[in-house]
Amino acid sequence: RFCEVQQAPPIEVFAVSKAFTDSTSEKKVNLSVGAYRTDEGKPWVLPVVRKVEQELAADNTLNHEYLPILGLETFATAAAKMLLGSTHPAITGGRVTAVQTLSGTGGLRVAAEFLGRVLKYNTAYHSAPTWGNHNLIFKQAGFTNIAPYRYWDGEKRGLNFDGMIEDLSNAPENSVIILHACAHNPTGVDPTQEQWKKIADVMEKKKLFPLFDSAYQGFASGDLDNDAWAVRYFAERGFEMMGTQSFSKNFGLYNERIGNLMVVVKDTACITPMRSQLTLLVRGSYSNPPCHGARIVSRVLNDPALFEEWKGCIRTMSGRIIEMRKGLRERLEKLGTPGTWDHITAQIGMFSFTGLTAAQAKHIADKYHIFLLSSGRINMCGITTGNIDHVAEAINDAVCN
Ligand code: PLP
């Protein structure tokens, strides 16, 4: 029977990263996987995280007992407050509940399972393009209709707002609309506040369900409140909605799988039955979540001094990305690389959708040992002061040839 199993297609981002690892070139650069790198091209354990880990290691009162099925409550509550703001009317009105999940991916999966199995939704829309996993998560959770809404305008290298609004207007009632809370992956282009208001108008009128995927809070602008504007706005408008949070990027806790699923309800009486259904879904899936990342994030979010220190770390990361954006644009413009490059600095967050084609990406990998996705998406954090000239020259060469 096992020999009947067919080879599944590779997941591009991991395949490209492997090509980088396998490359023996001294000049190799990895611009594919979405993880922060220092200016030395190294992973960064945030100093505040290191400090809390040392405190945890020295704390003999801690043990390895199971967490509750829905996770560490001090973590989930603080995470929801971080997303909505502690004075948000949904929070002060007790209309928010939150559960710890296996990072952002796990939060999306639990959300999709809940929406599909409990509320019988079967249609989900994601932006075109989107983070590659959205489609797979919803498919594996049993959604039978998964469709894109227009988002990226390749010509103008910006948001196709009219296309987005038209597609949302035509979506059937009770469709789940996956929205990137900020720092859209892969394009780095977010709607403006005025545009978000119009998106909310259409979704309200058409009875569409907002699911905000917040994987980069703090990474877009360096400010947690700015980056949560759209989520807070939708919650203020009175939507019943969900939001998933990842602490992979903003805490650098990628492999600890720490995330949160936040639910905003209209009627507080819904919360107890909802939590009971979420409990069943998690129990039958992974039973209960891991603790290490939850303890770290909980301590940081619940301690004002640690919280300030962490915000400083976020500013360090987002600031370095902004510097690399400026540097890359300047170099391409100086080289006279054909086309316009202002989108590199206009886009926000970890990624830039460069406009490079699959053939150009291949050229850059083959000739310069710089590895990026075939969509032309690059992780800005892979660029350092040491390799930025090499990257600019490679892009220039690919565009000129
Ligand atoms: N959503 C988006 C848009 C992402 O880019 C990512 C990570 O790349 C995630 C969710 C989830 O990541 P994780 O499961 O590591 O939290």
TrEMBL record:
Coiled-coil portions: none
Listed GO MF terms: L-aspartate:2-oxoglutarate aminotransferase activity; L-cysteine transaminase activity; pyridoxal phosphate binding
Reaction(s) catalysed by this chain's protein: (2S)-2-aminobutanoate + 2-oxoglutarate = 2-oxobutanoate + L-glutamate; L-cysteine + 2-oxoglutarate = 2-oxo-3-sulfanylpropanoate + L-glutamate; 3-sulfino-L-alanine + 2-oxoglutarate = 3-sulfinopyruvate + L-glutamate; L-aspartate + 2-oxoglutarate = oxaloacetate + L-glutamate
Chief location of this protein within or outside the cell: cytoplasm
Keywords: Aminotransferase, Cytoplasm, Pyridoxal phosphate, Transferase
Domain Aminotransferase class I/classII large: 27-395
Gene Ontology CC: one annotated term: cytosol
Cofactor: pyridoxal 5'-phosphate
Location relative to the cell: Cytoplasm
Enzyme Commission code: 2.6.1.1
Enzyme class: transferase
GO biological process, alphabetically ordered: aspartate biosynthetic process
Cited CDD domains: AAT_like (cd00609)
SUPFAM superfamilies registered for this protein in UniProt: PLP-dependent transferases
Subunit organization: Homodimer.
Similarity comment text for this entry: Belongs to the class-I pyridoxal-phosphate-dependent aminotransferase family.
PANTHER family attached to this UniProt entry: ASPARTATE AMINOTRANSFERASE (PTHR11879), GLUTAMATE OXALOACETATE TRANSAMINASE 1, ISOFORM B (PTHR11879:SF55)
Misc remark: In eukaryotes there are cytoplasmic, mitochondrial and chloroplastic isozymes.
Protein name listed in UniProt: Aspartate aminotransferase
Native source species: Petrolisthes manimaculis
Source taxonomy: Eukaryota, Metazoa, Ecdysozoa, Arthropoda, Crustacea
